[in-house]
Design brief:
The chain has 3 helices and 5 strands; from the N terminus they run βαααββββ. It is of the alpha+beta class. The chain has a 5-stranded antiparallel sheet, with helices on one face.
């Protein structure tokens, strides 16, 4: 692998309101901005938004497809924008640097118009 190497993108299906309700139940995050439309609207959000951790989980899923998770040394994220139902998310990533022991990589979760939702940096142990 070389610096600049692009990983195979992970394409997720359209986010649905029912997916957000199921994620709330699985994660225990019942904040109504994620599931109750009138509440999210009254909060000024214009409707429900996806859990940031759901989108971060998509990035983790992609990393797990690109590498063995036992080789993951570091994983950090920054949330950049809200994700809404009906958006389709793609996770793309590439190698940005390397050391003698690790590949240093970056990933982004973006929607169909290229808006970055989550930006992540991660390091993988070389074998």
């Amino acid at each position: 692998m070389e610096i600049g190497y692009q990983f195979e993108p992970l394409h997720k299906e359209e986010i649905t309101h029912s997916q957000l309700v199921r994620y709330a139940g699985a994660s225990g995050d019942f904040n109504p901005i994620h599931t109750v439309v009138p509440f999210a609207e009254s909060a000024g959000l214009g409707g429900v938004i996806a859990h940031g951790m759901l989108i971060m989980g998509f990035v983790g899923q992609a990393i797990g497809q690109w590498f063995s998770t036992k080789d993951l040394v570091k994983f950090s994220t920054r949330f950049r924008a809200m994700t809404r139902p009906r958006e389709k998310i793609t996770v793309q990533g590439h190698v940005v640097d390397e050391t003698a022991e690790r590949w240093i990589c970056q990933a982004e979760a973006v929607n169909d118009v290229g808006e970055v939702k989550v930006k992540a940096f991660f390091e993988i142990k070389k074998r």
